[in-house]
Design a protein that fits this description.
Length: 556
């Protein structure tokens, strides 16, 4: 079937099940937009900036498990995507980015808006392609989607010169073959048996669950595993939601700003079983102190992660569900009642006290947790203090309902990611986005798109008139020499939101917040903004620099 290259790309997107594409037009990508004019099965979402297109595609992928798709023109359009692509790469999110490029005859001549986007994105993509032969266009697009989803997921970029979009292409319909799970090889079965033996011998075992568990869709298997072996479980920032927060064996978020009981449990453990976690530095603190007097079992889809940050692990690299099912074949370990008594003592000692008289972010997050309990909500955050408070005090009960930038720590991620996620969820789930007054200045222009599409996102702006986490680091590490972190003047965020046609309200007390939240939750048809004017304060807990994860900074 002969058709234009642009039309062939659209047909490839349809066969991959793509329903939404986020982007911003420009001269070299216009043929793709023209091919979408009469296409009913794919919705194009015009954003206000290409970076937001990438974040929206990322958010779409996180809640749906599908490949998110974004597109931009050559030059600045393509480079504006890079931060969003890098965010997806660091968090292993499947994405396909399509960029227009100058005609093949102009490549290498510094033509208008020509840029070598392949070299720029090579370190932050699983793979990238430049299509110079129209005969390879269709197979390249199909291969990009395969790469994005296979093994450890991640973003793939396809750079397509404009004349390839116009070229005549022979498109043949294609059905994606169903994948059948393979049987584990005998050596793998032996390794799993060794791991089960180590678990059975351990007196103080602990499980760490990371974002890889959510990518693998292995929540059910993980819950069955921890219940059989009676194991305490903590989660990384990316692993929130893999095990319900309400599960009695879930100690919560662990790491640099993790719950004290969770950090104490990991620090005191004699065996750590990591499932889909790469042992990032924010998770471990000082690596030598972290590994002392411990054994490690590391389960991950990516063999490159085994022994990368923690050497000497018993590594099980492969399909997480298969690995966990192999472990379930073995008898459970020792009676861990003494270990659990110690954990319960820590939980009681460090139980958070929400009985405060003024409006604080932890108190507000706890109110949201109570109001949304048992209801279909998902949560997106930006990056900074509010991100840590949300991780500590929201109660996330399901996988793919927590969206945050973990590896890259991208300020500005929250709002466009929530937008993409809300489009993926439709009416089945509502997004609550928590952002700071720093991050919202970066990508708050996406309120325009949210208002235009009437997406019922509830957006909380934590306004502490500062870059809170920068200020916190300057207090702890730089002797309170505050610079470039406090805002002397602030915009009126209520008027800002209202300028896009969104109802907004500023609150300064607990009563005002409770009233505003109730109104926002009741208004299920429209976006809402609540601005929380709060005191400058510090996220607690916080691990000391170069310390073990149970050694905490004391704030005065």
């Amino acid at each position: 079937m002969l058709m234009s290259g642009a039309k062939a790309v659209v047909e490839c997107l349809k066969e991959q099940g793509v329903e939404v594409v986020f982007g911003y037009p420009g001269g070299m990508i216009l043929p793709m937009y023209d091919a979408l004019v009469e296409e009913n099965r794919i919705k194009q979402i015009l954003v206000t900036h290409e970076q937001n297109a990438a974040h929206a595609a990322d958010g779409y992928a996180r809640v749906s498990g599908k490949v998110g798709v974004c597109m931009a023109t050559s030059g600045p359009g393509a480079t504006n995507l890079v931060t969003g692509i890098a965010t997806a790469f660091m968090d292993s999110i499947p994405m396909v980015a399509i960029t227009g490029q100058v005609d093949t005859g102009l490549l290498g001549r510094d033509a208008f808006q020509e840029i070598d986007i392949l070299d720029i994105t090579m370190p932050v993509t699983k793979h990238n392609f430049k299509v110079k032969d129209s005969r390879k266009l269709v197979e390249t697009v199909r291969r990009a989607f395969e790469i994005a989803l296979e093994g450890r997921r991640g973003p793939v970029l396809i750079d397509i010169p404009r004349d390839i979009f116009f070229a005549e292409v022979d498109y043949k319909p294609y059905e994606i073959p169903e994948k059948t799970p393979g049987k584990p090889d005998p050596d793998f079965v032996i390794c799993a048996a060794e791991a089960a033996e180590e678990i059975a011998k351990a007196e103080r075992p602990a499980v760490i669950v990371g974002g890889g568990a959510i990518s693998a869709g292995a929540s059910k298997e993980i819950i069955e595993f921890i219940e059989k072996y009676n194991l305490p479980v903590v989660n990384t920032l990316m692993g929130i939601g893999a095990v319900p927060r309400s599960h009695p064996q879930n100690l919560g978020f662990a790491g640099m700003h993790g719950k004290k009981a969770a950090n104490h449990a990991v620090a005191a453990a004699d065996l750590v079983i990591a499932i889909g976690s790469r042992f990032g530095d924010r998770q471990t603190g000082n690596i030598n102190k972290y590994t002392r007097s411990k054994k490690f079992i590391h389960i991950d889809i990516d063999p490159a992660e085994i022994d990368k940050n923690i050497e000497g692990s018993l590594g099980l690299a492969g399909d997480m569900k298969v690995i966990l099912k192999l472990l379930m074949r073995h008898d459970s370990g020792k009676n861990l009642s003494e270990w659990w008594r110690q954990i319960e003592d820590w939980q009681e000692e460090y139980d958070y006290d929400y009985q405060v008289s003024r409006l604080t972010v932890p108190w507000a997050m706890n109110q949201i947790a109570k109001k949304t309990a048992g209801k279909p909500y998902a949560y997106a955050t930006d990056v900074g203090q509010h991100q840590m408070w949300a991780a500590l005090h929201l109660h996330v009960e399901e996988p793919r309902t927590w969206l945050t930038s973990g590896g890259l720590g991208t300020m500005g991620f929250g709002l466009p990611a929530a937008m993409g996620a809300q489009i993926a969820c439709g009416n089945s789930r509502r997004l609550i986005c928590v952002t700071g007054d720093g991050g919202i200045k970066m990508t708050g222009n996406e309120y325009y798109t949210i208002a235009r599409l009437k997406l019922p996102i509830i957006s909380l702006i934590i306004n502490n008139t500062s870059l809170g986490m920068i200020r916190q680091l300057q207090k702890v590490l730089y002797k309170e020499r505050y610079i470039a972190c406090e805002f002397e003047t602030q915009p009126d965020y209520v008027k800002y939101a209202e300028s896009f046609g969104i109802k907004a309200e500023a609150v300064s007390t607990q009563e005002e917040f409770a009233h505003a939240l109730n109104k926002a939750l009741e208004d299920t048809e429209n976006p809402r903004v609540i601005v929380l004017n709060v005191w400058r304060s510090f996220v607690e807990p916080m691990i000391k620099g170069n310390a073990r994860i149970d050694e905490f900074v004391e704030f005065k």
